[in-house]
Structures are given as C-alpha cells and as structure tokens.
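Summary for the funding panel

The consortium committed to producing paired sequence-structure records for every protein in the target list. Below we show the first two records in order, beginning with the earlier of the two.
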Amino acid sequence: MYEHGKSDSPVVPARPPNKVTAAEAAEERGLAKGNTGSTTHPGRSAGHDAPSGLDRVREVARRDKEARFTALLHHVTLERLRWAYRAIRPQAAPGVDGVTWAAYGQDLEANLHDLHRRLHAGSYRAKPSRRAYIPKADGRLRPLGIAALEDKIAQRAVVEVLNAIYEADFRGFSYGFRRAEARMTRWMRCRSGSGGRR
C-alpha cells in the first residue's frame, strides 16, 4: 500500500469549494507533472551524488563566460568557515586584536556562528592589519601587514567561493596562484608555450 512510485489516480475534490459554478466544482486534478522523476531532492537529503552549490556555480562559470554572479554570500556557510579556520596555520602570528588560533578555537563553534551571523547580516567589519617589519638581505626593512584571525577566516572562505568562478577562466599558462600546481611547473609551461587547460 505504501509503495514508492507514481500517484494512484487523479484526485477528485471531496467537497465543492465556495463560490464556484457546478462545472468547476467537479473538476479533478491529474497526475503530477514536472520533475517527479528526479532522484535527488534539494537540501540535505540530496545525497553524495548531487552537485553542491559551488559545483553548480563552477559549471555555470565554465559553460557561460558572460554569466554574472550576483548572489554568492550564501555559499559562505558555517562548514566553509570551519574549513577556513582549520586551513590556517596554528602558529600564524596574531593580528591587531591579539587573538591566536588556539584562543579562537577554545569556543570555536560559538565564534564561527557569530562570525557567520555578522557576515550575513552585513555587520562584519574587518579590523586593521597589524604592521610588522621583516629585515631584508640589504639591511632595509620590508613592511608586512598581518590580518586578524577572523579576517583570515572570512577571507579564506570567500576566496574558496570566488575560486569556483575564476578557475574556469585560468589557462595552463595563466599567472597567479594555482592551488594544485607547483611554481616550477607553471614556469616551465609559460616558457614552453604549452597552454593546455589544467
């Protein structure tokens, strides 16, 4: 009786609706049409085979070079913020606020929920970078800006979302940071002129 499959028969209303003619009252509804044959459902029940939101963004960016992406903030999720926190080196220097990786991780879930809420509410404001100086070989000092830990987390999460779009535009000979490719490999490709896509 409770099998998965097509609906039984068309639905006939049990009671006539108010203020209608006799012909409309006996109208029946046919079987469902549309996407009923789909094996995946939106949300968490989609399963592992369903493409994630970023996979769909990546596919649109690859297919349509003229596409404009206007709403991407919803891809900065708690999970992505958690991943960004774990991607930061635990020994990284603290920013102007003095918060270290370990201190932020003491109450990680509450901190990430708060950061997520502020990002999506539009109330998040980046802190100024802490200025540090590194000595160079010639005796001069090289200025370095060290971002606060929350800024690093937010930046990494946003970069992950934007990479889904811009990786489609990179060629094998493109300059810039490429996560899965060594510097020497890129240099050799540029030098030889082999511009195969990655």
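The next record, for a separate protein in the list, is shown here:
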Amino acid sequence: MVRRVVIGELRVQRIDRSGGRSWTIVHPDGGEHGEADRFLREHDGSGTQRTYAYLLVDHLRWLQRECLPLERVGLRDLERYMGLLGAEVRLPLGRPWREGKRPYGPSALSITAACLKGFYLHQASLGVNRELGAAFDRGRLPSRADRRRRFLGHVVTSAPANPIAPAAPRRRHPKMLPDGSRERLAREVRSARDRLVLTWLGDGGLRIGELCGLHMVDLHLRSNAACGQCRSPHLHVCHRAGNPNGAEAKTKHPWNVQGGTVCGGLIKRVSPAMIHAYFDYVTTEYPRGGTEHGMLLVQLHGDRAGQPWAPAAARRMLSRAGQRAGLGVIRPHMFRHSFASAVLDASGGNVVIAREAGGWASAAMVDEVYGHADVHDPAFDAALRAVWGEQR
C-alpha cells in the first residue's frame, strides 16, 4: 500500500489509549467528524473499526466532491458510488472516482456496502435522512446458510437485506503455496528467525498477526504444561491490543494469567519441527537483554535491534525470499491455506478437525472454502473412469 501525506481533506486518525487503539475520522484542521466518529465508536475495540474508518473516509470525500450533504443522500447516489468503486450497476456513474486505482473486489464491495448501510442506519436513528434509513431497513427470505448461523434458525422468517450489496460471488479456490515452495524458501532465508517464521506458518497454520503477536509466556513447548489445557506441546494465541509492534490476533478468546502461567486463548498444537526452529532461533539470535517486552520475534539488526518485529516486516521478508526463489510474491496467508488443505486431506475431509487445527470459528466456512475435490486425486480419477466405463 502506498502511503501519502493527506493535506486539505478528511483523513483517518489513530488514537492510542491505555486500553488499546481506536480509529476515527478528522477534518483537515484536526477536528473530529462528528457523524463518522459517533458511528465508529459503536465498533470500538474491534478490527472492524479500522476497516470501516478507511472505507467510510473515502465515501465522505466523495460526498464532498459531489456537494452532497448527509441529509440529501439517496439510495441512487449510493448505487452510483458503488458503481464507481467497481460494482456492476445499470445507471450513469458521472465523473470517475479513484482514478488510477484498481476497482474493489467482491469482498471489499460487500464490506463497503455493510459499512454504508450501518452508517446511514445510524444516521436515521439520530433523525438524519430517515427516508434513506427506511430504504435500508428491509428484509428478505432467509437462506439455508442464514438459518445455520442462528440459534433456533429453523423458526426465522426474515433476514436483513442490503439493497446496495453486490450479489454474493461463489468463493474462489484459495491461493496456496506452489508445490515444493517451503524447501525452496528455506534455502533463501538468511536467519534462524526467518526459518522459524517459515516453519511456524507452515506447520501451525498461524495468521501473521497471531505469529508476530506471540509472547514468550504464550509458548508451552513441552508435554503436560502447567496450564493443564493440552497434554501435548502447544501455544496460546492471545489477543493483546497494546503490542508495541501493532500485531494483534484476529480471534479474541478469553485468556488470563494464573500463577505466572498463561491460560485460555486459542490453543494450537506445535510440531517437533516448530520446537526445533524455536530453540535454534533462541540459542543463536535472540538477544540476551533489552527484551522486557517479552515478545517472540524481534529485529536482528540496526538501531532497533531487539525490539519487536512488525507483521509488515515479516511480509516483506517472505516477499523477498519468494522473489529470490523464483516463486513470485509469497504472502503469509498462503501458508494457512496450504495448512488447511493438508489437514483436510489427512483427516479424510473431516471439517471439524480442520476447524480446530486452524482456529476457524465455523466448520461450514472451512467446508465452503477448502472442501473441494482435487481433480488429480486417484479416487476422483477412478470414480470418473468407472462412470465412463473405462478399465485401468
């Protein structure tokens, strides 16, 4: 993402508090945008707040260009805005917006539609533009997925609808690591820390925020650890809003410290290779002092040696290693996709095992994203040949 200094227009402002970070939108003079701030406060303490802040500030800038006050925005204006972002709409769009930038993908468009619906429903609850609020306050017949997601879903008769949301696309196959890439990447990385990152992403299925947010006390790398929650070596993924490197776990399972031992959080098993990579890193590169922060991954060189290593730096390291290995751009989430697919294959398609191994909230999501047949699988090939009447 290209960073630029924003002068003379609305911008997103991060606010650091003792309990964590929050995000708001401010005017060029530094004063808060009241309507946006009140809406974003409803999502305080969640990752959604940051996402909504950046999506909403773009919309508010567009309203300024179009000279549209919030009281006069209509459903057709929002459909036109969504069309300018990349949605398929059948109406004139007017002057281009976001020139020189790629259009939003289906996922970004869906999130933008949800953000705008929430914002204008919030305005309507305050008495601003109630006509637009009424247009958003509509329902539809619930789908099978809607019923599965809800308690007593079989008695649900209506589900909320969003008139500006694009049609839900069929999930594409996730981008996984190329075959043999882990071995090729291991030959290109230049430190024990980087080898640890490769091993823990590949064998643990960790998100990059989870990995960079780990503290030493989260690691229980021996059998029958004091926490008593897992007999095998494991680690605890704990959401901490105040990590100095800005890394945060996506999931927010409750956790606490009992007698100096971390308990709770998301518990994940670790492999022998992960333990070996950990001791290789700790005994050869981890600094002996100046690590009062207690985090696992630290910078190795420069003026900030010993300070926590940020997720952005880990992403750049993987990208450079991928380029040197001739694999193109390697992203951390590719390891997670490959991990999920491998666990599904090894467990005979058991989505519950895959869900628990990867820390997903829904087995249905695992089945939808990763539960597709491998066209090169011998069983798949044999089934087709039997239908075709071929002998092999």
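Regarding this second record: The chain has a mean pLDDT of 89. The first helix runs from residue 34 to 41.
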